[in-house]
Design goal:
2 copies of one chain form a homodimer. Chain A is mainly alpha-helical. Chain A is built from 16 helices and 6 strands. In chain A, 56% of the residues are buried. The N terminus of chain A is likely disordered. Strand 2 of chain A pairs parallel with strand 6 of chain B, so a sheet runs across the interface.
C-alpha cells in the first residue's frame, strides 16, 4: 500500500473548489442555466406538482412512488413522528440549555439523543434496508423535535404529531397547535420540496465524510446540522426580511439601497455563488408570495425590482440577482412561521437530502481522508527540559 | 466569479487520498520513518518528558509553556472542568437514552448540549482569543462528561472534578472516585499525549470542514466525534485485547494465529494505513506495559512476537506490524480503564488535536465545498402526473 511520502501530493484549489470528490445520482445544480434537479426531475417542477412524501420517496428510493407506494410510505413515515419517551423527557432540559445558542444547536443535541435512543448502529454494519429505516426514522422526527423545542422555549407544551396530516401540514400543526389553512400548508410544502437538496454543499459533504467512516446515521446528520449552522453556509432566510424591515417604507427603497450598495455592503437576499441567472427557487417562491398578495409582498417585489436595477447600475457585470433567501423569508412570514424558525425549517427539508447522500455514500467502502501539508518549523527539535 | 460549469472539474483519487486540502503548522506523520510530530517536536518525546497540559498548551498556542504559563494554563483549564447545572441535570437522561449506542454517542449529545449551554457563538463571529476560550472550555469538560455518563450508566453518582489533579489523573479520579496511583496516572497521561493528534485523519478533516462554514466550536467537535465513532476510523483499542482473550493461553498462540491469518482475516492490533515500520506509539506503549510487567504483558509480548513472525511468513512483503491499538489496550487495561472506555479515552485526548485544527481552520475564511459529478439519468424528465 502506498504512503503519503511515496505518492506525490496532489495540490487542488483552496476550499476544494471544483474538485470532484464523488459520483452521485441524487441530483445537481446547473448554475448557468438556472436549473437544479433531484434525480432526473426538475426540483421546481416537483415542488409545483408533487407532495413532500413523493419527493422524499424519490430521494430515498430513486423513483417517484405509485399510489400504493405513496400510501405505504406516507403511513410508515407518519408513524415514525413520535418521540421516544426518554427523548421527550430530556427535551425541556435541552430547550433550556439551548436558549442562548438557538434552535439548530437544540436540534443538533436532540437528534443526537434520538439516534442514540433508537440504537442506530454504524452504517458499516447495516444492510441498505436497515440504513434506510434509520434514515426514515431520523427524518420523520426532525419536525417533532424542532417544534417541541420551539414551544418549550416559549413556555408552551409540545404538540403531539398527527398521523393524518402530510409532513408539511403536520409541521405547521405541531408548531402552532392548530391545523393550518391548506393554502399555507401547501406553500410551506413547496418551499420544503425546493430545499431538500441543492448540489454538493458543505453540510452535504460533511454528512458524506462522516458516513465514509461507517459511523451511524445520527453521527452524520449531527455533523451536517453543525455545518448548516455556519454563517458561511446555512445563511438565514430571516436576514432578507430584516433588510425589508430596515428599509421600512417604499419611499426609502432607493435611498437605502444606494447607501448600502455604495458602501460596498452585501445586500442580504441577493447573489449566489453558483447561479448567474435568477435562482430558480426564487422565481417559484415569488410566485407563491404573489398568490398571497398584500402589502409585504408588494413591498418585497418593489425592493427586488429596485435592487436588481441598482445592483446592475452600481455593480455592473456582477449578475447579482435575488437568491432563495429573499422570497423564502416572505413566504415563511406569510405562512406564520416565526423568524427564528426559518433556518430550522430549511433543516427540516434538507435532512432528507443529507440522508439520501448518506445512504449513497454508505454504498462506497472507501473512507474520505485527504492530506494536509505541514508548513511549520521543521521537526524534530529536541523537547526542552520542563 | 466562476461557476462549476465554466471551470473544468478536477478529478482526484477516490477518498481524496493524497489530496492536499490545506496547509497546517500543527503536526504531521512520516509513515516511512515511523515518526510523527506536534508542531516541531516528536510526539513520543513529548509523551515521555512532558505533562498533558504542556502539550495542550503547545497545540493551542504553538509553543510549550514556561513555568508561569504552565501554572496559569493548568489553573485555568482545571477551573473549566465543572459542568453547567443544566447539563448536569440532563446527563442522567442522556446516559439512559445512550445505553444502546454507547459512550461516544453519549459524548456527542452531551458535548453538543454543553456548547449550547455555554452559548458558543459561530467561530466566524469571534476573535481568535474568544475561539480559544470556547475550545479550552470544550476540551476541559470532555473527561467530566465521559466519566459522568459512564458512572450514570453503571448506576453510580458522577464524581465532581478535582482542581488539584492534572488532566489525566483527574480523569481516572472521576472515573473511579479514587485518586489513582501516580504510576497509573502517568501511564494514562503518556497514552493521552501520544493520541492528541495524528495527521489529517477523517475526524480532523470533518472538524475542519464544519469549521470552514464558521459554525461554533461544539458543532465542529460533535461532527468529529461522529466521524471517530465510525468503524473505519476510530478503531477500537479494545479489539486487540479481545484478540488476546480469544487466543486465551500461550500454548494456543501459534495455532490461533495460523488459523486466522490463513483464513485471510485481519488480526486486530496489526497493520496501519500509513506506517510501514513499527508504529512509534506502539513502541512507547509497549515500554509502559513492560514497566508494569505481569502475565498479561508477558502474554501480549509473546503474541506480538509470534504474530510478527507469522505475518512475515504468511503475508510476505505486507509489513504488518503492531499498531497503536495493541499495547494501548494492554496499558489501559493495566490502568484499570474498562474496555468500553478505551475509545472514549482516545476521544478525551484527540479533542485537543481537533480543537487545534479548528482554531487553525478558523483563520481561513474560505468554505470547504467540493463538487460531485452527477451520473444519474439525464434531466429534465417531465414529472409524471401523480
Amino acid at each position: 500500500m502506498p504512503t503519503t511520502e511515496q505518492n506525490a501530493p496532489i495540490d487542488v484549489p483552496r476550499g476544494l473548489k471544483g474538485v470532484i470528490v464523488t459520483d452521485t445520482s441524487i441530483g445537481d445544480v446547473r448554475g448557468l442555466q438556472g436549473f437544479y434537479h433531484y434525480r432526473e426531475y426538475s426540483a421546481v417542477e416537483l415542488a409545483e406538482s408533487r407532495g413532500f412524501e413523493d419527493v422524499w420517496h424519490l430521494m430515498f428510493h430513486g423513483a417517484l412512488p405509485d399510489a400504493a407506494e405513496r400510501a405505504a410510505f406516507t403511513a410508515r413515515t407518519a408513524a415514525l413522528r413520535h418521540l421516544p419517551a426518554d427523548v421527550a423527557d430530556a427535551l425541556p432540559a435541552i430547550a433550556r440549555a439551548s436558549a442562548l445558542s438557538g434552535p439548530l444547536a437544540g436540534l443538533r443535541t436532540a437528534l443526537s439523543l434520538t439516534g442514540a435512543s433508537a440504537g442506530f448502529r454504524p452504517l458499516y454494519d447495516l444492510t441498505p434496508d436497515r440504513r434506510r429505516a434509520d434514515a426514515l426514522a431520523a427524518c420523520a422526527v426532525v419536525p417533532t423535535l424542532l417544534t417541541a423545542l420551539h414551544r418549550l422555549a416559549q413556555g408552551l407544551e409540545p404538540v403531539e404529531p398527527r398521523h393524518d396530516l402530510p409532513y408539511a401540514a403536520n409541521y405547521l400543526y405541531m408548531l402552532t397547535g392548530e391545523e393550518p389553512e391548506p393554502v399555507r400548508a401547501r406553500a410551506v410544502e413547496r418551499y420544503l420540496i425546493s430545499t431538500v437538496d441543492h448540489g454538493f454543499n458543505a453540510s452535504t459533504f460533511t454528512a458524506r465524510v462522516i458516513a465514509s467512516t461507517g459511523a451511524d446515521l445520527a453521527a452524520c446528520l449531527v455533523g451536517a446540522i453543525g455545518a448548516l449552522s455556519g454563517p458561511l453556509h446555512g445563511g438565514a432566510p430571516s436576514r432578507a426580511l430584516d433588510t425589508l424591515d430596515a428599509i421600512g417604507t417604499p419611499d426609502r427603497i432607493d435611498g437605502w439601497l444606494r447607501e448600502h450598495i455604495g458602501a460596498g455592503e452585501r445586500i442580504m437576499g441577493f447573489g449566489h455563488p453558483v447561479y448567474r441567472t435568477e435562482d430558480p427557487r426564487s422565481r417559484m417562491l415569488k410566485g407563491i408570495a404573489q398568490s398571497f398578495g398584500g402589502d409585504l409582498v408588494d413591498f418585497a417585489v418593489r425592493v427586488e425590482e429596485r435592487a436588481e436595477a441598482l445592483l446592475a447600475e452600481l455593480k455592473p457585470g456582477r449578475e447579482l440577482h435575488i437568491n432563495v433567501e429573499f422570497f423564502a423569508g416572505v413566504v415563511m412570514e406569510l405562512c406564520g412561521l416565526p423568524r427564528e424558525m426559518f433556518t430550522p425549517t430549511f433543516a427540516a427539508a434538507r435532512v432528507v437530502g443529507w440522508s439520501a447522500n448518506i445512504l449513497e455514500q454508505a454504498e462506497d467502502s472507501k473512507i474520505i481522508r485527504p492530506s494536509a501539508r505541514y508548513v511549520g518549523p521543521p521537526p524534530p527539535v529536541p523537547v526542552p527540559a520542563a
